[in-house]
Amino acid sequence: MNIQKFLLTRRFELPAKLLSVPAVSVFQSCGMKHFPAPPTYDHVEIPERPKLRFVDKVPYYAPGIKAPKMQKKLRLMRGPETVHNFLIHKQYGIMALGGGRLKWQHFEMMRLAIGRKIDPQRMFAVWRVDSPWQPLTRKGQGQRMGGGKGAIDHYVTPIKAGRIIVEVGGKCEYKEVEGFLRDVAMKLPFQAMAVSQEIMDKEKKEEEWREKNNQNYYTMKYVMQNNLGGCQRWMSPFDFKFLGKYL
Amino acid sequence: MALAVRGILRERFYPVVQAKRFRGKINIQRPKPLHFDRAVFTELTKPWYLNPKRLKTPIELCSKPTDKIIEDVDNPYQRIIARELRERFDQSRLIAFYHRNSMNSDQQYKAYVAFIKAKMHIKTYGKKTLEMAVKDTKFEPVLDFYVSQNVMVFSPEPDIKQLLKVTKKFPQMVLLAAIFEGKFISKDEVMELHLIPNLQTAQAALVQTLNSATTTLTQQLNSHQNTLVSNLQERVKQLEEHK
Fold first, then answer.
1. Would you list the DSSP string of A37-95?
2. A192 touches chain B (CB under 8 A)
3. Is A4 among the domain residues?
4. Do A231 and B28 touch (CB under 8 A)?
5. Which domain holds residue A247?
6. Which of A47, A85, A191, B61 sits CB 3.0–4.6 Å from A162 for a disulfide?
7. What is the pLDDT of residues A41-86, one digit of tens each?
8. Does some domain include residue A11?
9. How confident is the model over A148-177, as pLDDT tens digits?
């Protein structure tokens, strides 16, 4: 077959990479090295006991008092945390992204993991949650319904989304603590992340920007408040409170 | 019609009122899949934003990685070095600028030592530091020939002879220009200055030039007497040799 005919009849597609001109030209330049001064943490005071204190499995009751049983109170896990949602020492910590319950085992895991990883000379950690106080009851295995409420099995701490669980501070940078804080956060029974003050500030700013620049006029809040489409028919009391943001 | 009315009256209508309470028990860790209506509402109320690229010009949309572009960061150490360089510029009476071709560290060290022995200082600065030192001063033209590997020699004494003597030994150091007593001179002018002798000799030469007219006149007038005297002296020598 004629080569010319072959070339004219076929469509050749070269990959874009071959024809593109690189947008960046790299050349070597040797400038005077700049070593900026490291950040100072002189304002940070390290407490006497830098490691996390031991947390009781069972809350203390005066002798003679029977440990009271309690309702399930799932509302203690629902919705956003409005009080303990910022860092006291303004450094680093673990923030819960969802609701859940912390058992004593979780506390131990956190205490030991963080205690192993921090340098007590220049870093410290503090609890930002109470030790387990809410009693959870369980009936024996294979028990039929009825016969009263079960016995107390263990105690938990309910956590809401946005709560700070643990704070780590001292003369250290975020890069140093991020590793083990994230490991600990992954092991918690709810979604959690390692945070620093900068991250929280940035997130706040982004949230404000998102709220301001949302082009969708019909936000869930607007829809729910104005009963568009008769949505208030199926909304729960929690929807009226959280307006679709939290379950 | 009457039958129809009686029929309606006979049928009892009991309004059914159903009190509905919310069950309320949700599993926070494993949420139930949303009801279709709620899912529809959730989807419709999803936020969307304007594309940040929409009002940008093509050049702004260029995908050149901007994080690779290193911006000028104020370096206090560099400022100190630049100030030092500026002082050198002001205090040295002779500053020579060289282009340095590649040479061994040994050769570089030898050059350094040779210049030190001639009481001159060989210095290498970066263009940025030089710019800091020299910008908006009378020495600004130096930046024009600071292109490749450059080296400067500072001398407190304007000793061009010594400078050129040392430079000859190191052919990798190519003299470009110099600043002599605060004035820029090119390489050719350096050579010219090199040929000029010291002040006393120059003054003597000047005096000679001034007196040249009178000296030629006296020479010409005394030429015959001088030839006679020289010839007689020659004859006296010949006679003495003969004896």
1. PPPP-TT----S--SPPP--SS----TTPPPPP----GGGTSSB-SSS-S-SSSSEEEE
2. no
3. no
4. no
5. 216-247
6. A85
7. 999 999 999 999 999 999 999 999 999 999 999 999 999 999 999 9
8. no
9. 999 999 999 999 999 999 999 999 999 999
